[in-house]
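Worked example 3. Consider a protein that binds iron/sulfur cluster.
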Amino acid sequence: MTSPSPEALAKLTPVLTKRWLSPNAWRIDVYERLDGYAALRKALGGGTSTGVGPVHPDDLIQLVKDSGLRGRGGAGFPTGMKWGFIPQDSGGGSAGKPHYLVVNADEGEPGTCKDLPLMMTDPHSLIEGAIIASYAIRAKHAFIYVRGEAVHAARRLRNAVGEAYRAGYLGRNILGSGFDLELMVHSGAGAYICGEETALLDSLEGYRGQPRLRPPFPATHGLYASPTVVNNVETIASVPYIVLGGAKWWRSMGTDKSPGPKIYSVSGRVNRPGQYECALGITLRQLLELAGGMQDGHQLRYWTPGGSSTPLLTAEHLDVPLDFEGMAGAGTMLGTTAVQVFSDQDCPVYATYRWIEFYAHESCGKCTPCREGNFWMVQVLRRILQGKGSHEDLDTLLDTCDNLLGRAFCALGDGATSPVTSSIKYFKDDYLDYIEGRKPPLLAPDASSPTELAGAHR
Ligand SMILES: Cc1cc2nc3c(=O)[nH]c(=O)nc-3n(C[C@H](O)[C@H](O)[C@H](O)COP(=O)(O)O)c2cc1C
Ligand code: SF4
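Given these inputs, the predicted complex is written out as structure tokens:
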């Protein structure tokens, strides 16, 4: 294992993660001691006793616009602009409808593991961000939708929400400002599609989680057909820091179009997998150094920049900036910054097969290209790995992707094409090795699940 150089260590930018190593950082007393709820006091004016008035909600929206904060849930949509889409009439509602804030804590994208540690170690930063965001968009009800399997995170959040109510940060007349907010933690039932914002809203309303047709968009017709902002955990947890530090300070990190710090989740064949918070624009080479380098005997062969829905990159892309523009320029996406590192010992065909099994399993079934396409891609990939594939199978895979990308009802279908098209682009010979018999079959002849391996080689 290599130790990071001082230059690499200087790349670490602990903002959202700054409390993670403090003992009991999830407790409200520790959080308050470490600047916690100072941003809320600033936003709400600290109550009438301080003589400092509240910041106007529109000014908070402008501040977030000025900071350049972009959504951390995958698509990178500008957060301030999203908040600004909510019809902001002075009565606190549009056409008599309430406004809602929904925090997306579903975190289901393969490889993504940043929101859960954030909620486990520093839940109050998310709660504080949710209160400020709700105040800015004039919402009196907010929800945190937590992935069903993350029982531990939901429990920790509920405890923290209880602490915040008792301390007067939630409920009626928060800090004497006249602002009221009810915050509810809701557990899903464990479905990747419920991370898609409109499926999430259906699930939150008690229906089966399936994407809605857009338009209308959640900004006008979201939860209970009312104006709703849906934001990722990391996005909302960034808000208190922007309120305290200001837009200029936030912009001093990262790049012009991708400002601020970002939590990169590094996993796979590295010596120290984990969360590394760095300014947007760091490269994989620098991240690898922070993560202790590749494991002994492993050479980098391919990697995902932001989960399995983002096209694979290779060792050629070690120095491309990991920001929205850099990744787009390399033909992929920043996604959730789930950097999964694979080596020369990890078969890209097998990895693709495992990912497509996931998409086929998680497809909600609403539209034909995704429901059928993923099912058939699993069959074809399995056939190839069983040594029974043909050259036409590669065309069939690409043709299926062609019928999926841009033709599916939601982005789950688009994302499923990423591992297939990018692995064929960079590693076609690996497919041909199975098809032309140069490599022994990896899957047993009658395998019907990804774990039924024919041998040890991959
Ligand atoms: C299949 C699918 C799963 C998604 N899962 C998540 C998720 O777990 N968390 C998340 O924040 N966004 C997820 N998204 C993106 C959301 O639809 C939405 O764009 C995001 O929550 C917006 O928040 P942001 O603007 O703060 O990034 C998913 C999208 C798709 C298509
Ligand atoms: S693309 Fe897949 S997940 Fe999305 S609506 Fe269609 S079937 Fe459902």
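Take a moment to read the result before moving on. The chain has a mean pLDDT of 94. The two ends are 24 Å apart (CA to CA).
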